[in-house]
Amino acid sequence: MLAAVLTDFNKLVLDDVPVPKPGPGEALVRIKACGFCATDYKAIRGIRRNVTFPLIPGHEPAGVVAGVGPNVSAVSEGDEVVLMPSGYCGICPQCRMGMTHYCEHSYTTGGDGPADIRPGSFAEYTVTGVTSLFKKPKELSFEAACQTEPLSGAWKGIVQFSQMSVADDVVVIGTGSIGMYCLMVAKAAGAGRLVAVDVSEYALDTARRLGATHTINPSKVSSVKDAVYDILPQGPDLVVESAGPIGAVESMVSLLRRGTRWNVFGITTHETFTLDGGLMHFLEARMDSSFGTTPTAMQHALRLMERGVVNVEPVISHRFALKDIMQAIEVMGTPNRNKVVILP
């Protein structure tokens, strides 16, 4: 099969590799679409260093079951499915507490986090455990379905962890694809005023079309804090950092007032920022963060799309065949894009 193999930082090669075979409890999936996550891009470019080579990236896939291993009855050949990148044992204490993304025996297909990293979905086929498969609703295209994982992360961060309430005023810093999903989930959950912050006018234009009531370009204002407080005189109820750079985290901290909830969502590199301990104490500002996804979050994301509450199709800005993935990498490094999808 054709696969994009990362052999070193900045060395992604298209190669002909053996089609994997499913073992007990596993399924082979013919990949129809796979989202290109910023963490994939960071691994390819060497921005993210926790990479073991060789690696087939790609952890936002949807496809068709092409074969099953022994003792599999939950799915059959021909089933249209969405893949959750993280696999879990189901029996360790973390799993039984419902925190499968903390599983002591976890693995991931094409992503990062656990020690067990398996080949991902910038390839024609992927093998994974059947517990990581979800039936694709018939109404969803494969391109929409492959966005289940990032949308699930947005639901998990905004609704489950930060407990957004109806009419909350929400600020989303960084409206690339994941920030756009956060914005759309916040809108669907009943945000009052919804402020998108980004240095890309392309991203801000998309944010306005998808529900932002206000937008701010930091490069065009003297102070993001002043611009936000001009819109929200009493300050935001929830601030989501979904940009990645440490400056976005620092900007988020500057927006806090008493009772603000804030979610460190986008930054995945190990950088530091400072906090005034006393100020945090008296503000009672509650910090959350959100990493990875869970079966619960995946199921909620599928419900959001299946019921038409969130339409992810407009977030897709570029589509590339797997053979053209080098072009996709170049687009990922530009500001004029939202979600990039690879079509093996």
Molecular structure report:
The protein has 344 residues and is an alpha/beta fold. It has two domains: 2-147 and 312-343, Medium-chain alcohol dehydrogenases, catalytic domain (Quinone Oxidoreductase, Chain A, domain 1), CATH 3.90.180; 153-289, Rossmann fold, CATH 3.40.50. Helices cover 28% and strands 25% of the residues. It contains eleven helices and 18 strands. The protein has helices spanning 38-45, 93-96, 142-145, 148-161, 177-188, 201-209, 224-231, 246-254, 277-283, 295-306, 325-332, and strands at residues 2-8, 11-16, 26-36, 61-68, 80-83, 86-87, 107-109, 116-118, 125-129, 133-135, 170-173, 194-197, 214-216, 238-241, 261-264, 286-289, 316-321, 339-343. The strands form four sheets. Strands 3, 4, 5, 9, 10, 17 and 18 form a seven-stranded mixed sheet that branches. A six-stranded parallel sheet has the order 13-12-11-14-15-16, sandwiched between helices. A three-stranded mixed sheet has the order 6-7-8, with no helix packed on it. β11, α5 and β12 form a beta-alpha-beta unit. α4 crosses α5 (177-188) and α4 (148-161) packs across α10 (295-306). The model has no long low-confidence stretch (mean pLDDT 96).
